[in-house]
Amino acid sequence: MGNIWSRLFGSSDQTAIDEIPLSQAQIVIDMPRSLEGQIFIEANGDDRTVFASRQLQDRLHFLQWLDNLRYVDGFRGVKVKYVPLSAVTERMEHAHQNSAILETPKEDVEVRDRALALLTEIGGYNSSDIRIRRLSRHTEVACRINGRYMVAHELENSFADRMMRAMYRLGSSQAASVTDSQFQDGGISGEVLKGTGLDNVRIVRGPCVPQSEGGWFMILRLQSIKKGVNRRIRGNFSTLHPLKGPAGHLRLKDYGFTQRQIDRLMGIAMSPSGALVFTAPTGHGKTTTLYEIWAEKARVQPGRNTVTIEQPVELDMPWAIQLDIPNTDNEEENGRILRERQRATLRMDPDDIGLGEMRDVDGAITCFTAVQTGHFVASTCHVDDPFDLPLRLQIMDFTRLSFAITCNPSLIRGIVSQRLVPVICPHCAVPWTTDDPRLAKTINEAALSWCPDPTLIRRVGTGCERCYGTGIAGRTCVAEVIETDEELMNDFVAHGVSVARHRYRSRPDADPSLLEAAMKLVAEGKLDPFDVNTTVDRIRPREKVLKERQDGALRGVKSC
Questions:
Q1: Burial 19-33 (b: 16+ CB within 10 A, else e)
Q2: In this predicted structure, what is the pLDDT of residue 25?
Q3: Under a CB-based contact definition with an 8 Å cutoff, are residues 447 and 435 in contact?
Q4: Residues 220, 129: contact at Cβ < 8 Å?
Q5: Cβ atoms of residues 62 and 33 within 8 Å
Q6: Residue 123 in contact with residue 140, Cβ under 8 Å?
Q7: Is the pLDDT of residue 3 over 50?
Q8: Phi, psi (degrees; rounded to nearest 5) at 132
Q9: What is the SS3 assignment for 400?
Q10: Are the C-beta atoms of residues 222 and 127 closer than 8 Å to each other?
Q11: What residues are paired with 153 via a beta bridge?
Q12: 210-240 residue pLDDT tens
């Protein structure tokens, strides 16, 4: 926290800083990402006041942060006022407007020329879009050529901030002051573009991750005066270089996914449109799996434009534009912000869209609206069984999310269910017995039916040095990957969830269910039957599960 002043004013000169009235700007302090957008700190003379959203009043993470704040010089006597979230946002906007006024006309003229030069240069490449992302250490300027983004420039952040403000003000419809805390759109046209080769420029700008370090983006959609594929290219392509994908490799196999599951997952993920939905309870690795898929897509296709909408952003993806939704208990406010982010996203010409979670009708409608406009979307939903996803959606809104609408293989391309299950430490594991007191007698008998050699079954031991006394060596993922098709979706509509589930699982190429996948690892001595029964599914006799698979193809035949 010793760099509060330099982070706010871009200077380490305390004398220069003292000349700026603190009442004209918000003091920026390191804070948890979960608090971003919900707190405003106001300084009036020697007084410090924290304006916090009412939803934070009893939140432990906020109270801990507030307690730590009082150890910062000048904040020992800080006051706290709990206000509506809208009041916090209003104060943020006012501060940003006031700080924007501090720019001199001379600065505006200088950066205005650079902004027009940038438009002229990139317009000469026959580029359709400019994407500007302010990162923690620099600002990246990329342009889309023939559908793929290429890096054109890397700018110093403070200069990029000034240039983008000047660029936004080139439009006649924009406000005089630029508010960095809000999503904004506008346009540039007319005489100001004379000599650039452009007829019109559409602008979308707003905050993105990392917000704590001033992260924001600007997308400019370019319309040239001369349209068509035969336009003369004026630009010097030697200044361009490809975007770099993230380092590393796809780690889904390390997490527990089979190679066949990985092949299916990546086949779905490389689709031009449609939704891939992950289902699992909280804390079972959905976000991590999604991260790996997005990272692999960025490695294979680094020139794509990926935009995510998350509440909150959990894992940073430097190759994507990540839009954060502030935490709030107000469903109406959540819905409003989500719809705002959706509208902004669709104006940004994205190739792929990530939606953190379909937790309500607003999230689901946002997901499927994006799919229907020709985008690939990946999202999550809290559903216990993957085949219950259409039912879960229908319960949200019977009219707009009915089976007849959502059960379309071009809309939902894949459904994935996964669970994280503790792996037994092999160094201190003990033999499992059929009289396991942790499980009912019927469950013990059912577990035995899955294992040809019961002597291989193990249970968690008392712990050792290698597992730090836990008896657990880590966790592995068991998953079921469902690739949708016309037959499956028609079964949902015509016969319901139960028939659709059994008929799909009767297919020879169908993925094993979560229970089947987990019990295979039990038979290998890797998982404790107790953990499977409490984390994955109730253990049933193997013969009964296999008979359900065999009989599944006959279900619904009479009514067909």
A1: eeebeebbbbbebeb
A2: 35
A3: no
A4: yes
A5: no
A6: no
A7: no
A8: -115, 125
A9: coil
A10: yes
A11: 141
A12: 766 678 899 999 998 876 544 555 556 667 8
CB 103 within 8 A of CB 162: yes
| Residue 227 CA: distances (Å) to CA of 58, 125, 149, 348, 398 | 58, 13, 20, 21, 45
Which DSSP helix (H) or strand (E) runs through 548? helix 542-552
Pairwise CA distance, residues 98 & 90, whole Å: 12
Residue 86: count of CB within 10 angstroms of its CB: 11
Residue 454, classed as helix, strand or coil, is: helix
Instruction: Provide the sign of the torsion angle of the four alpha carbons 257, 258, 262, 265, taken in this order.
Output: negative
**Average of per-residue pLDDT across 258-282:** 96
Contacts of 363 (CB under 8 A, 6+ apart): 338, 355, 357, 379
Give the separation between CA 208 and CA 139, rounded to whole angstroms.
Answer: 13
- Over range 321-339, report the average pLDDT: 79
Q: In 3-state terms, what secondary structure has residue 408?
A: coil
Tokens of 86: 């809208």
The phi, psi pair for 131, rounded to 5°, reads -120, 120
Q: What is the pLDDT of residues 192-208, one digit of tens each?
A: 899 899 999 999 988 88
> How many whole angstroms separate alpha carbon 102 and alpha carbon 100?
5
The secondary structure of residue 375, as a DSSP letter, is -
Helix axis angle for 514-523 and 542-552, nearest 10°, is 140
> How far apart are the C-alpha atoms of 368 and 374, rounded to whole Å?
10
∠ at Cα 474 (468, 480), nearest 5°?
165
Q: Helix, strand or coil for residue 216?
A: strand
The secondary structure element, H or E, covering residue 381 is strand 376-381
pLDDT at 6: 28
Instruction: List the 79-83 sheet strands across, edge first.
Output: 39-44, 47-53, 79-83
Give the separation between CA 149 and CA 130, rounded to whole angstroms: 8
Tell me how far CA of residue 358 lies from CA of 37, 316, 378, in angstroms: 22, 20, 10
Helices 497-505, 486-495: crossing angle, 10 deg rounding:
150
| Integer Cα distance of 402 and 197 in angstroms | 48
CA distances from 434 to 402, 455, 535 (A): 46, 11, 20
Tell me the angle at which helices 361-372 and 331-346 cross, rounded to the nearest 10 degrees: 10
- Give 69's Cβ-side CA count (13 Å radius): 22
Using DSSP's 3-state secondary structure scheme, residue 306 falls into strand
* Cβ-contact 225, 197 below 8 angstroms: yes
User: What distance in Å separates the CA atoms of residue 351 and residue 361, rounded to the nearest whole number?
Assistant: 23
**In the predicted model, is pLDDT for residue 287 greater than 70?**
yes
**What distance in Å separates the CA atoms of residue 537 and residue 548, rounded to the nearest whole number?**
16
- Do 494 and 488 meet the contact criterion of CB atoms below 8 Å apart? no
Hey, what domains does the chain have and what are their CATH numbers?
4-101 (no CATH), 105-242 (3.30.450.90), 252-552 (3.40.50.300)
